[in-house]
Amino acid sequence: MRSILFLLIFLFSVSTYCQLTAAQYKVKSLEANSDYGDFGTTFYGTDKIVFSSSRKVGLSSKKWDGNDQPFLDLYIGDVEPDGEITKVRPFSSTLNSKYHDAMVAFSPDLRYVYFTSNNSRQGRKGGGIKIFRASVGSGGQWKDVMTLPFNSDKYDTGHPSVSKDGKRLYFVSDMPGGYGDKDIYVVSINNGHYGAPKNLGPTVNSKYKEYTPHVDQDILYFSSNRPGGIGGFDIYMTKLDESIEEPINLGKPMNSKGDDLSFVIDTDTQRGYFSSNRSGGKGDDDIYWFEEVTVNPICDQVIKGVIVDKISGQPIPNAFATLYDSSGEKLRRLETMRNGEFSFMVKCDQSYKVTGDKYGYFVAEESLVTSKENAFQNNLTLSLDEKEFIDLEGRQILNIKSIEFELNKSNILESSYDDLAKVVRLMDKFPEMIIRFGSHTDSRGGDGYNMWLSQKRASATVSYLISIGADPKRITGKGYGETRLVNNCSNGVKCTEVEHQQNRRTEFEVIKK
User: How many domains does the chain contain in total?
Assistant: First the structure.
């Protein structure tokens, strides 16, 4: 193995393809590559790249016996629109030492840098390596270099990678208890404190070597020399929730007969970098730029939406949201929660349509095309326009909620005032319309009492409508008691409270429009 990456990172010393296939990539080598080793790119903000190199312009003039090349230093360069890295210069005189320094990761706010270095940085003998952390000072210089608490003189740690939220640090180690030669681990980060290392398990780790983790949301990219790959080390991807049984090999051209590692991607542009010692390169290990042409096969997103009333803007509970694919096939239908919210899991880079509906409302729909960014949340609001009229068993009635009264009384509850005001608005909108208000009860209680109560409520409702502006010549009221049940819950029939509630209703029937 001629790659300087392996000689540095651990001086001591896939499985078959999944049914899913990886995305398609466009790859090119960079002009910034030297005749020596260049590898391990990391994004530094939005327009710069930090990488490792043994090129001669480093801070140390010494050469490493392992390959007769200069010791590795960290370099920084500007990212051009075409992916080229220009204006390459040493990254930091604080971080670059007399020996190997490589493989960096940054906290999301760029206040902290994690990097791999030799034990000699601490004045200790031996060829082992550790992960160190430094913080940025007020003048922009790195300071306060410290070793991480899970490092040890008994094993090596390296290849740091920080999650986008800054709460987890992934790394590679040969610490005891692993599955193979080198495994990938994760520790939690909490205000500068670090949890206990946790092995990512047998889905990721094998009895071989796993290197260079990179996490994008819930997708892990890493390299492994497990059997079944294209070359020595291949780049794989999997989901951290272990829903993918076997990691997916990225295939050609990302992988070659050589060693391919250090995959990083900017999900905003679907572009990134990786390192390889494949044939045709300029030096030992070279940096390659890539663009993801098609979306990766395990890229998931969520549609998080809410259904609201178009006029009031208030959420509509117990409405229905339906998801359709680009061909119009219904994928899923669900009822909204009390706050009108719903959510669908969807695939990246796909076209969808979402509809919202509820009895008494017109159907609303929205179309969207998901992006290529994994775990992106698509926010959606469906505004339903309430119908003015609905058809019920051949009759046309006003689309008004059932009027509510005090228990066993004809006093109208304040919660129904807005609905009664809507009745007057519709009468004004349709000046020739004549309506009849009907009040109904369930079968519980005496028949005569139910008829009397429903008539009292009908009269009270008509009187209230006239008091707020309704034309008395165009509205009448009638109590029906329990004579028009909508189900079989008549006298002596045992029914649920919900079934009885269906019979306790009010209706504004259109006699003439």
Answer: 3
